[in-house]
Write a structure and sequence with these properties.
Length: 461
Amino acid sequence: MTIAREHGQEQPSAAGILKLRLPFIHYRIEYQDFIQGAILSCVPLGITAAMVKVLGIPIEVAVLMVVINNFLYLLHTSFGDPSVCGWITAGIPLYISYLTGFDPGPDRIQALIALQVLVGLIFLVLGTTGITRYVIQHFPISMRSGILLGAGFASLMRVFDPGQPFIGKMPIAFLTSAIASFFILFSIRALDYRKRYGWFAWFASFGIAPGFVIGYVVGLLTGEIPSPVGVFDRFIIELPFGEMITSFSAIGLGMPSLDMWTAAISLAIVAYVLAFGDILVLETLIDDSNKARPDEKIVFNVQRNHIITAIRNIVEGIHMPYLPLCGPQWTGGQALVVNRFKHSTPEQEPSYWGGATSIFWGMSLAMVFHPLVQLVLPAKLIGFGLTLLIQGYLCIYLAFAMCTNNLQRGIAGVMGAVLVSANYVKLWGSPFWSGPTMALIVGAVLYFVLEHYTEPEEKKE
């Protein structure tokens, strides 16, 4: 039995303002969300392909980093933040382009250390000073839209580049998977089927997992995906902690040089701006939950979310620099948890925190088991490609939705094009003058020259 809650109040917690909540004490494990998390373990494992290729990390170390990162997600829901968190996904193509400007080996690892620690410091400063809300509210819509637009284009360009493995090596499997996933997630017909057919609503509740499975099966039939091997070699995955620390961390390699810290500043700012949208979406979804389930009050505090996100980035940046960085929310997982909570009675799902935490218990524990990891790894590129594809679609969709007039759309379009076309060409021999820097400068100039205008007092009167 868990601790009871008064109607309309917050779920009980411990440790005072930390709001510590523990399984079986402050919430029960929700098996539906646990199973969904286990199935969706294919999503975070999809990043291992890029980590191996870009950073030169052995696959065993990459998988270990993904597992550790997933367990750190539990910091949020365990300490009072309702976020089902994830990566700063929209910027992944930008991080990859940035890192390829450094020599393979220790230099790239140290460049990522500098980037991730700086992102953590930005979250920490804005979270502890309390100016986060002000920054979110006053950053120009046209510039925010421009960064999202550029990141969306960068994601899609990477997916459809024949030189990349998604279309180049597995066209039938990946396109089949992409079409199935887009139908389930975004089709008007699918939305109607969810209301009419209970079996389809259950099927669709697993997000991109059905599309992944369909693509996996097609890939096995066409020979585009190799059959899994060594599935039952062991029960638990390899845990090469020593190799990870000595060869791929600041402890083993040393801290980055001053030039690396300087080069990472602009991209760290862009990564934070990309996270703005996730924060706003999270606020909206939690408000929706409170309206649908008045029996439980869910409190979202931006500062708490920022501080925990900062801790994740700084800890990981020093001990295991993580390519997709640590973001404040994972929209897909958040929507799954919120949707089930909204449509459940207090008897079916007593507390939001049970579902929000169970999804990561399922995902994290599933990735520890070697047989499951070996089954998923052959199709990891499908999981990673779907993440980029859906993220690109959502970035472009949100970018257009943000703008309220053609002037904002024009500024956003130019800024997005600059971000993509600059592609980290180093002007004046410095990596600082790269895509994100040029996009921010161009966007700021266009905003102040074209859009920013304070009407004279006499005109107002």
